[in-house]
Design brief:
Length: about 230
């Protein structure tokens, strides 16, 4: 449609609410489309402003819209909320996005490249595995404390668990010893994965000029540098 000035999209996983407005702000249509239909709409629509709330999948759709020549504007949700005129629903949300996109002095979120998002995935995965390992270690320490076996915090002190269990003998039931081995196996596996991810970030820091500069800051290593590049805007 040639009259479409702003195509506002309320994102979801399978069905999307699309609100189209003309240059004067009048609503041309506000309807639900499927994922396939949205891709088709972005491909057939003449270049216009495509507005979305900045969320988990907005960067993917932003790249998709940019590939068809559209001007993509990702709006922080806090800037969209004041323009919801009635009870929150998909149609009202899409209309609010269209209205927010018309306002001056709105700070938009830059569309991230696939490589940019890949760095974010690596960092989040690293942090997720670290949290899971910490949870397992704390659970293991709690179970062992029930039998009078107390260990300091941190993965480095787990090496003494096996020897201490052997010294404890019959004071610790065999079933508990088997469970402790399960914990240790899972913790070791996570530690290997964490080390692999850390090495990957370190390798990236050798080839990325931005990461090399960040790692030159005292106290900043490959993991922190990767987080800054992944989440901080240019």
């Amino acid at each position: 449609m040639a009259d479409v000035h702003i195509l506002a999209i309320d994102l979801a996983k399978r069905s999307f609410q699309v609100c189209a407005t003309d240059p004067g702000g009048a609503v041309l249509f506000n309807r639900t489309v499927s994922r396939a239909k949205l891709e088709q709409l972005l491909g057939t629509q003449q270049p216009c402003i495509v507005a979305m709330e900045a969320c988990a999948t907005s960067h993917f759709w932003g790249r998709c819209a940019q590939s068809h020549g559209h001007d993509v504007r990702l709006i922080p949700p806090i800037y969209v909320k004041p323009f919801v005129k009635r009870q929150k629903n998909d149609a009202a949300g899409a209309a609010a996005i269209a209205e927010a996109a018309l306002r001056p002095n709105i700070h938009y979120v830059a569309v991230k490249s696939a490589e940019h998002q890949a760095r974010a995935v690596s960092f989040r995965t690293h942090q997720c595995f670290v949290r899971q390992r910490t949870q397992l270690i704390n659970a293991l320490r709690g179970h062992l404390a029930e039998f009078g076996l107390v260990f300091p915090q941190g993965p480095a002190h787990l090496k003494a668990v096996t020897g201490t269990l052997a010294e404890a003998g019959d004071t610790v039931p065999t079933s508990v010893t088997d469970i402790v081995r399960l914990f240790l196996e899972q913790i070791e596996l996570l530690t290997q994965k964490i080390d692999d991810l850390t090495r990957g970030l370190r390798d990236t820091s050798r080839v990325s000029e931005d990461m090399r500069r960040l790692c030159g800051v005292p106290g900043v290593g490959p993991v922190t540098a990767g987080a800054i590049l992944a989440f901080a805007p240019d």
